[in-house]
Amino acid sequence: MFGKLQYVDTSNCFHILNSSKSTPSIGISIPTTKKYKEQNQLHDSNGRIEKSKNLGVKFRPGVGYDSDEKEKLDYQIAKNSRTHVWKNGVLKTQNGFLRKPVDKTESEEKIGGQVQTERSTKCGNDVKRGQDSPTHVVKGSVLKTQNDFLRKPVESSENKKKIGGQLSSGNVVEKVQTKCSTKWARYGGCIPVMLEALETVSDLDEALKPWEKSLTKKERTIILKEQVEWQRAMDIFEWFKRRGCHELNVIHYNIMLRILGKARRWGEIESLWDEMRVKRVEPINSTYGTLIDVYSKGGRREQAMKWLKLMNERGMVPDEVTMGIVVQMYKMAGEFKMAEEFLKKWSLCKCLVEERVNGATRSGIRVNGSSGTSVCLSSHTYNNLIDTYGKAGQVKEAYDTFHEMLREGILPTTVTFNTMIHMCGNNGRMEEVASLMRKMEELQCRPDTRTYNILISLHAKHDNIGMAATYFKLMKEASLEPDAVTYRTLLYAFSIRNMVIEAEKLILEMDKKDLEIDEFTQSALTRMYLEAGMVEKSWSWFQRFHLAGKMASECYSANIDAFGERGHILEAERVFNCCKEGKRLTVLEFNVMIKAYGISKKYDEACYLFDSMEKHGLSPDRCSFSSLIQMLAAADLPLRAASYVRKMQEAGLVDDCIPYCAVISSFAKVGQLEMAVRLFDEMIAFDVKPDVVVYGVLINAFADIGSVKEATKYLIEMRKSGLEINVVIYTSLIKLYTKVGYLREAEETYKMLQSFEAGADVYSSNCMIDLYSERSMVGQAEEIFENLKRKGNANEFSYAMMLCMYKRTGMFKEAIQIARKMRELGLLTDLLSCNNVLGLYATDGRFREALATYNDMLSSSIQPDDSTFKSLGIVLLKCGVPKEAVGKLECMRKKDPQSGMQKWSSTLSSVIGVLDTDSPDREDA
C-alpha cells in the first residue's frame, strides 16, 4: 500500500509522500474524548479495549523496519482496508488514500496484514485443519494436498515419494520437512517448508525447485527477511533476479539494504542503490529510513545525514518511524538541540501536509512549549522526545511534553514512566519520582522489571539503600522476576557500603538462579571483604572466579589493585601469579602490581617487575613508566627515577614534561639543584616544552636558597615562552624577596598577587608582615594583619610575627594583647610561637603567665628546647634565685631530661608561688 510520490510546494519544509497517517497508540484505558470515540477501537472478548500495537521507531525486516514495527503496520493496514471502493479503476480506502488496482495474479498479503493471495490464504487456513494428513488430490494440472499446499505436478518418471520426512527426486534430496518447523510456524502455509529447504540445502536451484515458478511476492519477501547471513541473502536475491519470472519490488530491496547494512557492507549497499536507479525501482519512505538507520548504527553518521538530505530533496517527509531514527541518531551523538530542532521542523511540516490532504488541522504536540497546531504522535514518539529532553538536562521541557501527551489523550506507557522516573532521579528530584509512581498506579500502568531496576539504582545512588532493598522486595511481590541487572545493581550497592550479610544473601539467590556475577561486581565484593577485615574471605572469593577460568585480564587487574591499595601485598602478588600461570598477563597487570609495590614502599620489587616485562613479551606503556617514575620521585629517589625517564624518552613515550617535572622536583626537594638543572636542560634538548609547573619548581627551589639570579633567569625564560605567571610563582618570589630583604620587589609582587581573584594568600601576607617587622614598619604590617583577621585567615605565624614586631619596638602592651589572644584562640601549638610568648612574659616580668604558658606546652606535648629554658632562667633570676642554682637546674636537665624538666617545673611553681603570696598585686602593677 504505497502511493506515488507527490510533491508539495512548501518552502523551508520537508516534502511528504502521500502515505497512510500514523495511528495514535491506544492506551490501557481510553478517555471519553471525541477523538477516541471516532477512532476504530479493538476489543477483547470481555469488551475491554485492548492495548494498541507498538508504534515504535524501529525498522522491521521485510519492509525496511525491525520486527517490532510489524504490529504497527498490521493495525494500520487492517484499519485502512476495512472499506474499499472502486472508482474509475482506482481503489479508494476508507480513509481516502488512493491505490492503483492490483493485478489479481500478483495480489498478495504483505507481512502480517496485507491482502492475501487466494493460494496462500487457502494454504494458510487449511494447514491448521489437516497438516498431518498424507492424502493428495489432483485437480486440473495442480497437485493439491489435504492441507492445501499447492505444488506443480510431478512427472511419474521422477517417482517422487516421501522418505523419512524428505522428498527424494533422483539423486537430489530436498530436505523439506512434511511438518512446518516450529521455528517458522508463525508464517503458516508453505513458507516454513521453503525456509526449511533453504536452510538444509545449499544449492538454490535444488532448494527452491518445487516452487521455482510459483513463488509469490510475499514468499520472496519472507525468504529474504529470514536470512541470517548477508552472503546467503545476496545469493537468493541474485537467484530471484536470474529467474525473470520473479519480480523484485522496493520491499525486497529494503530488506537487502538492511541486511547489508547490519553486515557493514557499504560497497554492496551503494551498488544496490545504483541498481535500483537503473531498474527504476522508486525508493519509498522506509527505504530512506532503513539507510539512515543502518548508516547511523554503523558509525557513519555523516553518510546517514546525506541520506536524510536526499530524502528531503526527493520530496518526502520522514514518517514517524524514520523521524524517531533520526532523533535517536542525534541523541547518540549527544546533539540534543539538533534532535529537538529536527522534531520541531518535522512536526510543523507534517501538520502543513495534513492540512492540505485532509483539509483540517488537529492539535498535537507543541515542541518546547511552542504554540500552534501539529500532528498527533504515537506514544513511542512522545517517549523518544521525553528521553531526548531528559538526556539534554531539559527537565521542564520533558515534563511539558509528558503533560501534553496526557492532554492529547495518549496514555503513557510503562516506557514513558520509566523514562520520566529515570530522568527525575538523575536530576535529584526524588519527590517527583514518588509522584510518578503514584500516577503510574492511578493509570493502572503496571511497572515492569526495568521500572524496578531504575528505582533500585536511583535510590542506591542517592544513598537510600533501605528503599532500594524495599523495591527489590516489592518487585518479587509483584510476581516480577529480578534479572541479572537487578541483582548486580543491588549487589554493588551493598558491596560499596560493606553490607556483607545482605550481599551474601543476594549471592546465594543468584547462585540458585544460575545468574552470573559480572567482573565489575566481583572486584567490588573483593574490596568489600577487605574493608570488613575479612582477608581470607576475599581471597576465597577471588579463587571462586579464578578457578572457574572465566576471569578476563581487567578483572585480575582489579583484584590486584584491591589488595594492593589496602597494603595486602602478598595477596596482590598471589593474584598476579595466578594471572601469570593462566598466561593472561598484560601490561595492565604489571602496572597495577607496580602501583601496589609503590604503596607498600617496595621500590626494588617495583623496579625488578618493571624490568621483567620484556621477558614476558610485553613492552611498558606510558602508564608503566609514569607510575614508576612518580613513585620513585615521591620516595626521594630522583637518580633512579631519572634513569627511567631517559628510558621512557628512548621508547618515544614522552609527549609532555610531566615525568621530567616529577624528577626535577624530587632533585630540588633533596637539595640536588645541579642535577635538577641538568635534567631540565636535557628535557629542552629533546624539544620537550616546559610548562609553568616546571618553571615554578625551579624558581621555588632557588628562592629557598635565596638565589635571586637563578630564579630571575627562569622567570625571564618563562615569560619569553609565553607562559603566564601564576599565584604559586608569585608566592615563591615573595618568599625569595623576603629572604634577601628586597622590599620594593616584594611589594610589587604582593600587589600582583592581590590582583588575582583569590587575592594574596596567608603565606604571602605573613612574608610581608615579616619584611615590614624587620624594618619596624608598624603601620604597613598592621594593615596587612588586620586584613587577614577580617577575612579570618590570620594564623599562628601571623600573630607571632606581630608579637615579635611589637616586642622589638618596645610596644609591650600591644605585644601582651597579641599573646593573650593567641592563647585564647588556641594558637600556641608551635615551639617557636611558645618561645616568643615566654620570652615576652619573661622580659615584661609576667611570671605567672610565663609559668602557665610553660605548663600548656608540657600538656600539649610540645617539647621545650634551650630557648625555652633560657626564658625560664630569666624568670627565676628576676625572682631572686641565684645564678648558680639556675645553672645547676640546667645541668641536671641536660644529664637527665625527664627528671630535670620535673625539677624545673617544681622550682618555678614554688618560687612563683612564694612571690604571689608576698606581692599579690605586683604583676598587675
UniProtKB/TrEMBL annotation:
Region (Disordered): 103-134
GO molecular function: mRNA binding
InterPro entries noted in UniProt: Mito_RNA-Proc/Resp, PPR_rpt, TPR-like_helical_dom_sf
GO biological process: chloroplast disassembly; regulation of DNA-templated transcription; singlet oxygen-mediated programmed cell death
Keyword check for rRNA-binding: no
Cellular component, GO annotation: chloroplast
SUPFAM superfamilies given in the database record: TPR-like
Protein name, as recorded: Pentatricopeptide repeat-containing protein
Ranges of the PPR repeats in the UniProt entry: 249-283, 284-318, 378-412, 413-447, 448-482, 483-517, 586-620, 656-690, 691-725, 795-829, 830-864
Family statement: Belongs to the PPR family. P subfamily.
Organism: Nicotiana attenuata (Coyote tobacco)
Coiled-coil ranges (or none): none
Pfam hit, one: PPR_3
This protein's UniProt keywords: Repeat
Basic and acidic residues biased stretches: 119-131
